[in-house]
Design a protein that fits this description.
By secondary structure, this protein is α/β, with parallel strands linked by helices. It contains seven helices and five strands. About 50% of the residues lie in helices and about 10% in strands. The chain is globular, with a radius of gyration of 17 Å. The termini are far apart.
Length: about 160
């Protein structure tokens, strides 16, 4: 990244669906990439179920961005952030709705927005994080899910 530049990683609301204890997150964020697969939490939890593996992989996007913000990107006074979209209307979303429409609809109905998001909404947030008005924001994730994770955490929606 160029001196003073900004970068953005698109993650997923799935990163918030399985809470990782803080001590394990600290271990993960500080582990060299080549040993991540050998960490007991990864071997014993994340790699035992494809759904958990996906969630943990998305959370790792956040953790690696935090690490970069504090290390290599900091040296260039550059910024890096992540965005975690919820259910966004895209061609892939249509395929997922065809495969699991009822599950997605229950999730959407439980959210505060009670609708899907749009790619334009994600683009606007990305433009903000990459732009001049966000120069003091780095190493953070912006959850844009219409309230799905809030519904999960409060018990309004149950995974599974």
């Amino acid at each position: 990244m160029a001196e003073g530049g900004a970068g953005l990683i698109i993650s997923s609301q799935a990163a918030y669906m399985y809470p990782i204890p803080n001590d394990i997150e600290i271990e993960l964020v500080n582990a060299p990439t080549e040993i991540l697969k050998d960490i007991p939490f990864i071997k014993e939890v994340a790699m035992q179920n494809s759904g958990f593996a996906y969630m943990i992989a998305k959370r790792m996007n956040h953790l690696q961005a935090q690490r970069a913000a504090a290390t290599s990107w900091r040296k260039r006074r550059a910024r890096i952030n992540t965005i975690s979209p919820g259910v966004i209307v895209t061609p892939l979303a249509y395929d997922e709705f065809n495969a699991n429409g009822e599950g997605y609809q229950r999730m959407i109905d439980a959210s505060a927005a009670q609708r899907t998001g749009t790619s334009d909404e994600i683009a606007e947030a990305a433009a903000f994080l990459l732009g001049e008005h966000a120069k003091f924001i780095t190493g953070t994730d912006l959850l844009i899910d219409g309230g799905v994770i809030a519904a999960i955490r409060t018990g309004e929606y149950k995974l599974g």
